Amino acid sequence: MDEIINKVDQSGLITLNLEDYYDSDKRVFIDLKEHLYEGVILRERDFRAFVKSNDWTQYRDCNIAIDITTDAIVPAWAFMLVASAVSAFAKTVVKGSLEDLNKHLYTIALQKINLTELQDKFVIVKGCSNVPVPESTYVELCALLQPVVKTLSYGEACSKVPLFKKR
């Protein structure tokens, strides 16, 4: 009986799975709409009282997104005031939605990729994931890898989509 040879393993193809870069720590959305007077006005005195009295320790080691989900106009200092209170406990704080937070966390993770290990390599970015990976992260990864790798593809080794080939 002939030995089964895994040609993918022998090809030198490196698979990058963005799922491996997913930050699994808890994500929390803080919505400032709950602190508006009559749903439209931010009263500074009341808001400062909330920030001072709130138990921010509940956000220890969490990734925090701060935003407002109504059309009310809220000054930038309000987001900054919440960020200054929660950042002593949180792992990460961003202004925006949970999707914005996810994008930010991936950007941080991509910056930690050791590009020297990928120099002139054949790289495929795995397409399927069990965690949410923003499309912007794939674009960001492509821009990061293209100056370094020999080839860049997307998908699986058996059905990859070529994206870039160094000439």
Write the layout of secondary structure elements.
Blueprint: H1 7-10, E1 13-16, E2 27-31, H2 44-53, E3 63-67, H3 76-86, E4 92-95, H4 98-110, E5 122-125, H5 135-145, E6 151-154, E7 161-165
Parallel strand pairs: 1-5, 2-3, 3-4, 5-6
Antiparallel strand pairs: 6-7
Please characterize this protein's 3D structure.
- This protein is of the alpha/beta class.
- It folds into 2 domains: 7-23 and 104-165, no CATH class; 27-90, no CATH class.
- The chain has helices spanning 7-10, 44-53, 76-86, 98-110, 135-145, and strands spanning 13-16, 27-31, 63-67, 92-95, 122-125, 151-154, 161-165.
- A 4-stranded mixed beta sheet has the order 1-5-6-7.
Task: Tell me, rounded to a whole number, the average pLDDT.
Answer: 92
Specify the structural class: alpha/beta
Q: Give the distance, in angstroms, between the N- and C-terminal Cα atoms.
A: 41 Å
Shape: elongated
Instruction: Point out poorly predicted stretches.
Output: none
- Fraction of residues in helix: 25-40%
Q: Count of DSSP helices?
A: 5
β-sheet strand percentage: 15-25%
How can the largest sheet be summarized?
Answer: 4 strands, mixed
> How many strand elements?
7
Radius of gyration: 22 Å
Number of domains: 2
How do the strands line up in the largest sheet? Answer: 1-5-6-7
Helix and strand succession? HEEHEHEHEHEE
